[in-house]
Write a structure and sequence with these properties.
The protein has eight helices and two strands; from the N terminus they run βαααβααααα. By secondary structure, the protein is mainly α. The two termini are 28 Å apart.
Length: 225
Amino acid sequence: MSRSFVVAVNPADLLALESAVEAGRQAEKAWLKAAREREGMSSLRGRALREARQRVRVERARLRESGKLAGTRDLVVLRGVRPEMRSRGLDSNWNPVPAHAASAAGRPVGTGNGREGFDQEGRTLLTGRLTVKLPDDQAERLVRGCYWVSAPAVEALCAWADRWGDGPMGKLKDAARNGAPAELAMMAAAFAERAPADALREREKLRAQIVTTGDVLRAAIRRAR
C-alpha cells in the first residue's frame, strides 16, 4: 500500500526530475535485459521459465527497494527521501501524530519572509505540482518525523502569537471579516500593539525550525539532479 502527497515544486526541479526518471528507466531496461540473458530465458520453457521470471522479479524488487533501480517518479523521489530524512534528524521511531493534529495544515503558523520557494518580492516560485506516492511505512515515518521535530517551534510560535497577535494588518483583516466600518478598522489597526524588532526576529527563527512533508519532498526531488 502507498500514500499520496501533492507537492508544490519549482518547474525547474520538475524538469530535472524527469531527466533523472528517464535515466533510471533506461538503466532499469538495461538491467532487465541483462538479467534475462543471465537466466537464459530465451531458451527456457514451462516451469523453468516461470521460476526464472520469478527470480528476476524478486531481484528487481530488491534493487528497487534499495534504491539501486529507480525507473519511475515515485522511486526516484523515494531514493531521495531516505537520505533527506536522515540529514534532518527525521528518521526515527516517532510516536503517532496526535489525533487533533492529524489533519492540521502543514505550516499552521505562517511561513515568514525570505523563505524557500519565494522570490524577493514574495512571489511564489513553486508553480508546479507533483503527486508522489510513498510506501505506507515510509509515508508514516515522514509525517511523524515532521510533526515531532517541528512541535517545539510550533508551540513557541503559538505562544508568540498569544503575546503579540497579528499586529496592525491582523486587526485590519479581523475588522474586514467582522464587517466593521473602514474608519473603525483603521483606528483599531493604528492602536494595535506592534512586536519589537527582536521579537520579530525570534518569530522568523522559530518559523525556520518548522519542517513539513513538502519541505522534505522538495529537497528529495532536488537530490535527483
